[in-house]
Amino acid sequence: MARSPRDSVLALAGIFQSARLVQQLAREDRTDADALRASIQSTLALDAPDVESIYGGARGVRLGLELLSTKLVGKSQPADVEIARYVVTLIHLEGRLRRRPAMLDEIRQGIDTARTQMKFFGNDTPAEGVHPLLMEKLAQIYSQTISTLTPRIMVSGEHGHLSNPAIAAKVRAALLAGIRSAVLWHQLGGRRWQLLFMRSKIARIAGELLAAGVTSP
Description:
Layout (H helix, E strand, L loop, with lengths): L4 H24 L4 H12 L6 H4 L7 H10 L6 H21 L2 H18 L13 H13 L14 H4 L2 H23 L6 H4 L1 H16 L3
Helix pairs in contact: 1-4, 1-5, 1-9, 1-11, 2-9, 4-11, 5-9, 6-7, 7-9
């Protein structure tokens, strides 16, 4: 896959978007439905021809781009620190996963199986755009693979939300989507040191993508 700063920022936005979705679900029992749908669908797009196609267009990571354009520069709030913790751990886990080819194969096979099984449901999709069975299957893949690696991601939130099986499945599925974006980001040349030394450039590119109409209907 050809590398470009724009594509790298889109993949990084995918990681940040997943982290924000996890935070929203765990703390507020709600989330951005469009962003959740795009992130979940990105886990199924293993053979997409380009980066934008993985997210259904750059608009699919609008939430992540907004975070990059505003949170990488300026003063951080406690909620931003939590998102950063999720992002750094996802990137670290991607590095661990990269050294486990058998686990990578297991994840791919699980996703292929989920895609095949979901074809039987056709257009039977809820209003939020993601079938709960798909959430459950992706959550199971996460639990059987990524969740066994260290360090485990410790999700902070309201116990009542996290103890809800439907919310817990969405959180795990969103984390799997974050891993998918982290894998893509590394493939495109993304490295952790860039989050320290290229923050302004990343924020600028994210802002340019937003200004180009990513947020327009």
